[in-house]
Task: inverse folding
């Protein structure tokens, strides 16, 4: 793919990852209500779909995709991430999505292969 | 540094990482009860402590540390992660910790350089 031939080809584009992740979440969970019996399948489906789409981009990266789905009952949820890597080439993107009955937080980490 | 370093010196050792995580979590939130005003500071402190202990190990790895703290009030929480990496050199470790008022889930991913 030769859309941008500048040096930014070797850095992580978080906007692209954001839109990939949103599509994957909507594709898997969409308008469904939180259901304990399905949630396992959803989280697995979301991470696998995101990973497949990211790998299809063909960039020289290793990826880690994490997903947390939480039922809306008023509980507090906090997440934090910290990374020890090459800040010029590696990057991450976190998408927070919700519907009427649940929250979904997906993080993608991309680590460049030397 | 010994010339005789075995592969273990440059592999991701799950037990070692798990121990580091448990110590960081206990030192930060130990016996505290869930408090909305402090939880931000706790998650930051847990990930930073884990990361500094991990980098002190001196192994040729890049690390990603993820921490989730959730108040116990009956809500369901499910987390999943998947990785596209080199199976022979990279690894991960997740620790689930709880006390009377909250759950804490910490995941560490180590990618070999």
Result:
């Amino acid at each position: 793919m030769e859309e941008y031939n500048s040096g930014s080809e070797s850095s992580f584009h978080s906007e692209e990852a954001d839109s990939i992740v949103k599509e994957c979440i909507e594709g898997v969970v969409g308008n469904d209500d939180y259901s304990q019996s399905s949630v396992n399948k959803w989280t697995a489906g979301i991470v696998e779909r995101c990973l497949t789409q990211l790998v299809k981009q063909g960039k020289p990266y290793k990826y880690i995709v994490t997903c947390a789905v939480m039922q809306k009952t008023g509980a507090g949820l906090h997440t934090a991430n910290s990374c020890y890597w090459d800040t010029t080439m590696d990057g991450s993107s976190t998408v927070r999505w919700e519907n009427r009955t649940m929250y979904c937080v997906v993080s993608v980490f991309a680590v460049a292969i030397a | 540094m010994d010339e005789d370093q075995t592969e273990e010196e440059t592999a991701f050792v799950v037990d070692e990482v798990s121990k580091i995580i448990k110590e960081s979590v206990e030192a930060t939130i130990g016996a505290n009860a869930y408090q909305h005003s402090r939880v931000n500071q706790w998650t930051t402190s847990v990930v930073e402590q884990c990361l500094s202990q991990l980098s002190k190990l001196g192994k040729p790895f890049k690390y990603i540390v993820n921490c989730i703290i959730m108040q116990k009030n009956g809500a369901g929480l499910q987390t999943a992660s998947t990785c596209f990496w080199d199976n022979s050199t990279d690894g991960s470790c997740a620790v689930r910790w709880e006390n009377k008022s909250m759950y804490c889930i910490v995941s560490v991913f180590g990618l070999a350089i």
About this structure: Chain B touches chain A through 45 residues (CB under 8 Å).
